[in-house]
Structure formats: structure tokens, C-alpha cells
């Protein structure tokens, strides 16, 4: 398992804090020694413990290193103050320049929108007109390009749809021809259209009276005969 990260804050337990101090101090002095040997650097490390003890390491005379540090710090402080003044002036100038640039761009934008033209001279108006015309030319050119692209896409899509329509029509005609060929084959429609068979029908004599009609006629004759017999004699 790897070493877990610990939160960098003051260790409250005194014993743990002392143990950690010893370990970290030895590691710091070791790293300082390695830095001095490997990189040929002048290194000086001074550590004060909470009890006031001093631990130090130096690959050279520590007093000479401290004197060199004091001189460097004094020079840096003087030059640093000069650099701070110059930096402050530079940032002030940049701030003013940026404000002026913002105002110029804002005014130019308003003029392009057709506002605040009363303060412009004839030369400035001509310059503004040329700028607007150049912008319109670029806009129209881009618009024409997009229209051409859209028309090409529509033509391409129309050809694709036409080809798909032609293909579907050919498939429909092919299916119709197949169905007609199947219908025209002999014996295929025997089940749907059976041939005429005389045995399935009765012979009908046009001169023969149907049975139900004959029965009705006999009944009428009897009824009429009954009336004849029961009526007065002539």
C-alpha cells in the first residue's frame, strides 16, 4: 500500500509532534546535503525547534553565506522599490489606454449602427460608408456561398429521392408482372374458378311446370270446382 496523504496542519499531540519534527528535520538536512553535492550550490539551513534548539547545515562557512544573503537582500529591496514604482506607473498608463480604446470601439460601433452621426465630418462619413460597403460585400458573398451550397444539397437530395422513387416503381412493376405471370399459368385458378360440371345441376324443362306451381294450380281448380257444385244450377 502506498503512503497516505496527511493534512498539513499543526500536530496537537506533543509526542507525535516531536517525533515528526525529528524525522522531517533529518530529511531536510539530508536533502540540503544532496543539493549541495549534486548541484555544487551554496546551501545553508537553519532550524529552530519549539524548545529553542538550533539545527544547522552548511557546505561552506555559514557566516559568509549569511553575509552574502544580507547583501543580496539589501540590493533586492532597493531595486524592488524602484521596480514597484515603475510597475505602478505602467499599469496606470495601460489602464488609461484600455479605457480610451473601449470608448473608441463603443463610438465606432454606434456609428456603424447609424447612431451619433452628427459629430462626424464629411471625411469620417465617407470612411464609415466605405467600411459599411466592404462589410456588406463580405456578407453578401458569404450569403451567396451558403445559398449555392443549399441549392446543391437540394439538387442532390432531389436526385436521390428521384432514384429511390424510380427504384420503388420498378419493384412495384416487377411484382405486378410476377402476379400476372402466376395468374396466366394453367391450372393455377382451378380452386378459385372450378370448371362447370353438369352433374352438379338439375336439368330444367322449360315446358314443365314447377312442382310448387302445379300444386297451387290443383288447389285452385278444386276450390273452383267446389264452388261450381255448390252454386245454383243452370
Automatic annotation (TrEMBL):
GO molecular function annotation: DNA-binding transcription factor activity; protein dimerization activity; RNA polymerase II transcription regulatory region sequence-specific DNA binding
Entry GO terms, CC: nucleus
Main localization, broad class: nucleus
Alphabetized UniProt keyword annotations: DNA-binding, Nucleus, Transcription, Transcription regulation
Location within or outside the cell: Nucleus
One Gene Ontology term from the biological process aspect of the record: positive regulation of transcription by RNA polymerase II
Protein name (Swiss-Prot/TrEMBL): MADS-box transcription factor 3
UniProt lineage: Eukaryota, Viridiplantae, Streptophyta, Embryophyta, Tracheophyta
Amino acid at each position: 500500500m502506498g503512503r497516505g496523504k496527511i493534512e498539513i496542519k499543526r500536530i496537537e499531540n506533543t509526542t507525535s509532534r516531536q517525533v515528526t519534527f525529528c524525522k522531517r528535520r533529518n530529511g531536510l538536512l539530508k536533502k540540503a546535503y544532496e543539493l549541495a553535492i549534486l548541484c555544487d550550490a551554496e546551501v545553508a539551513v537553519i532550524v529552530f525547534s519549539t524548545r529553542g534548539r538550533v539545527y544547522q547545515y552548511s557546505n561552506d562557512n555559514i557566516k559568509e553565506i549569511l553575509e552574502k544573503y544580507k547583501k543580496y537582500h539589501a540590493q533586492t529591496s532597493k531595486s524592488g522599490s524602484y521596480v514597484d514604482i515603475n510597475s505602478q506607473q505602467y499599469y496606470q498608463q495601460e489602464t488609461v489606454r484600455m479605457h480610451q480604446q473601449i470608448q473608441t470601439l463603443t463610438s465606432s460601433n454606434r456609428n456603424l449602427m447609424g447612431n451619433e452621426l452628427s459629430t462626424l465630418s464629411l471625411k469620417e462619413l465617407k470612411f464609415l460608408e466605405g467600411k459599411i460597403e466592404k462589410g456588406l460585400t463580405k456578407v453578401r458573398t458569404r450569403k451567396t456561398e451558403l445559398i449555392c451550397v443549399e441549392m446543391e444539397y437540394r439538387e442532390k437530395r432531389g436526385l436521390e429521392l428521384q432514384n429511390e422513387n424510380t427504384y420503388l416503381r420498378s419493384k412495384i412493376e416487377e411484382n405486378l408482372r410476377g402476379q400476372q405471370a402466376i395468374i396466366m399459368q394453367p391450372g393455377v385458378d382451378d380452386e378459385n374458378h372450378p370448371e362447370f360440371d353438369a352433374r352438379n345441376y338439375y336439368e330444367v324443362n322449360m315446358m314443365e311446370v314447377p312442382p310448387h306451381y302445379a300444386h297451387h294450380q290443383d288447389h285452385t281448380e278444386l276450390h273452383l270446382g267446389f264452388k261450381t257444385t255448390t252454386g245454383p244450377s243452370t
